[in-house]
Every structure is written in C-alpha cells, then in structure tokens.
Amino acid sequence: MTLSKEAYKALKDVVGPENISEEPAILDGYCFIWANEVHFGDKFSARPPAVVLPGSTEEVQGVVRVCNKYNIKFRAHASGWEVPAISASKPFLPVDLRRMNRIVEIDQKNRFAVVEPYVSVQLLFTEAIKQGLRPASVGCGPSASIIASSTSHFGCGHSSVSTDYAGRTPLGVEWVLPDGEVLRVGAPGTGAGWFSGDGPGPSLRGIMRGLSGANGGIGIITKAAVKMTPWYGPPSIKPQGKPNIYQYNVPENFIVHQLVFPGREQMNDFYRAVVEEGIAHGLQRNGVAVALMLVTSSNDDFWDAIKDSPPEMAEVYKFAGSILVDSASPRELAYRTKLLDSMLDKWEIMSFPLDDTLKANLFYNLVTGQGTQRAFRLSGSFLSGFGNQEAWDAMSNASRRAAEDIWAKYEAGGKVAAAGEAPWGAALGDTCSHVESVVVYDQLDPESVQAARDIILECDEKMPKWHLGMGSFEGCLSVGARAQKLAAPYCLDFMKYEKQVKKLLDPNLAAEASWYVMPDD
Q: What domains are defined for the chain?
C-alpha cells in the first residue's frame, strides 16, 4: 500500500513536513510488537504507507478528513504497548499521538485531571501526588497512556481495588469521530467544564468504550478528563540506587505484604473481604516467584534465586498474592493494621518474609505497576489467554478450569510454557476481578507459535460456553470473525449492534478496526 502524491501532500499540509514520513527505516519502527505472529501469522505487522504525528485536535481532525477523502484507513495509538495499537493484517496509516503529551489541568478540589493521549500513568502520577491525588494505575506498567487505558483499551491494574477499573474513570471526553467530526461527550460539549461524562441527554460513554474499548475502531480520543483518588503518601517518591533494581522508602503510613494462602477458598474469602472492607490501596494475585522477579536484574539472577527450591514449593505457593494498605492518619493505620491482622489469622494466611529491597520494590509495583515488565522477561514472547473479568470466585474457578482443560495438554506437548492457574489477577472496585492466564512461547519456533495460537482459538471456543464473555485477548472484539460467531449465541449477539454503531459513526469505514468490529457485507 502506498499513498498517492496528492494524499501525501494533503497530510503534510495538515501536520507540517517535519511530522510526516514515508521513509522505510522510520516505517519499520511501527511494524514490530510482541505476539503479532500469533494473531496475524508474521513476526512483523504490515509496513504502513506513512506515519503522521499530529499535535492538536484540529490536526487530528484534518488527518481524519484526508483519510476519508482518499480512502486511507487509519488507527491512532499513544504508547503503543500492545498489539491492538499497531498490528493488523493489512497496512494502515498510524496516527502517532506522541506530540499530544500535555497535562491540561489537575483539578484538586473536584478530583479529576484533563490529559492528552501521550500522558503516561507515571507522568500523571508524579504530578498528581504533589496535590494529594493519584490516577488509576494499570497492570501493563507506568509507561501506558492514561487515555488509552481509560477510554480505549481495558485498563485494570494493581490499584483498581481503590481507584476502580480505569474504564470507569473517564469523565468529559473530546472525540474525533471516524468521519472527521469532533464530539465532546458530557459537560465539555456545553462548555461547562470537564467534570461529567454524562448529559445533557443520553450518555455516549458506553458506545465510546464499553467493557474493553474500541481500540481505535471508532475514531480518536484527543483529550479526556479522568477521575482521581486521594494519595496519602509523600508528594514525591524518589528512587535510590542504580537501574534496574531501585530502592524506595516505604512511607510509614503504608503496609505491604506478600501473602501465601492455604488454599483457593481462603484466598477467595480474603480478597472478597478486603474489597468489602475498603482497606487496600493495591491488591493482586501473584506468585512469590513474580515478587522475586522484582529484585533480580536478569533471568540468570532469578534462576540463581530459585534453582535450589524443592519442587513441592510450587504447590505450597500455588495460591499467593500481594496487598498494599494505606491510611490517612495514624488512627486509621492502627485500625487497618488490626483488621488486616485479624483477617490473616482467620484464614491462616502466611505473610512471606520480605527484606527491605523486596518490600520496597513490591510497594512501588503495587503503586505504579513499575515491576510488571520485569516479570515479562522470562522468554522471547508471551500472550495472555483467557483474560476476562467477573466476580472474584468466578475468575478464580475459571483460571483453574482453563489450566485443567486447556493449558495442561499444550504444556505437555513441550512447545509452550503455560503458567497453569492464572498467576496474575487484580481486584476491581466492587468485588469484581480481572484474571489473565499467561502462555510463554518461542516466537522463532513455528510449532511453538502454533501451539500458542491453538490456545487462543480454544479459549475463543470455550469462554462463551462457560459463560465468561468472549475474546481470549482481553475482550477485544474482532481478533477474527470466528470468535464473534462462537460467542453470539451466548451473549445475545451484542456485536450485531456494535456493527450498526460502527457503520453509523464510520460510513466510509476509514477507522481501521482489526480489534473492534466491521459491519457485515
């Protein structure tokens, strides 16, 4: 796919000559992201015809209008962390939003922030804690875009137990529709500020986002207000030491534990009680091994730390997790400490002994998700199969069933290293939880890649039958029409209405929708 001279000139006139390129060396930088070979059969996604970097809503609007005029498919991305950001089977125009990187406003009194797409979780966190506020952090780490995780793609993380699921945090939104019109959802549409995403009239946030986001399939979000939550720590957290293992001072009004549960039932009861009591800043299901990854600088160091552990330890630590408790006052800290201790005693939960380095890194990971990428380093590539969110008990049992019915047979073949029961889960704000079961594979081995692909396909088939939603890759709707057809009988075929929305908002089908829906022919 190439752009005509007229189309290229029209885009250049919108963004300026320095913010558009069709140089192959530049374009190849938009072709690689993990797991592309599983979803689209090649290590690299299709080379785009060009890339544009708009710097304002007006420039985004201009780019979208040019794409409609010249029949060019586009998709925007911010940090570009996952395959829905830049991967597809056919070329499209990436609209790279890295120039739109401003925190427009932090409203301390009303607890919201207005940001542009390239503002990361870490940037907003760093600025917001100066005013006693914090955003929802997400499991993929602090480099993720606030707007992407709140308006366009999933958005759960370690802090969801206290900040709520990021998909519930957007308020007012500025949205460039696929035909080039600008829609301001909620209060901004009337010039009343950014405090609400609803009214006057019906709310459009469900259409804009839904559960998992449209992943760029119905336009580009150029600005959004997101809810903020009180921060009880210091106005700055400064790392000490050298990369990639830092030290952090855990504030006196925070408590961090790595927990080991005697069984599934006790784990479920504990997590449910913590959410109901509202005492946790961060809550996560993770193995003790994941915690050890936070304080080892390489795979070799990690192996040295665990190689002498007896095999039965894996079974002992099968049900484990971490918790971070915060408090606004010494009196509240005493109450929450006493309540947490009573819970640990009630369900006979062991608090794994932590040295200062492990405690410091576990604290910072639960605050920002900073250590997540370190836990992803074990092999060349991985993917999250069977990722969804529901009531905590349902997700716990679902991860067991996935491990027994799907994971075990593929791992026995020796081509993938399935993690068995989901090693990663986060509690959301209302006793709901998000679970991902991780599959590690060798992206250079075709048989290993095929095994990972087969796992995804089997999840697509079994998740709807188990009444656990659809889409094995974090709820994305159209990794393929096959997944939609399999899920339709079990979910009232809601995709039928999504397709009508897509056609209504995008009559020229200009917004590339590999991770959303496309209208039927």
A: 5-96 (3.30.43.10), 103-230 (3.30.465.10), 240-375 (3.30.70.3450), 381-475 (3.30.70)
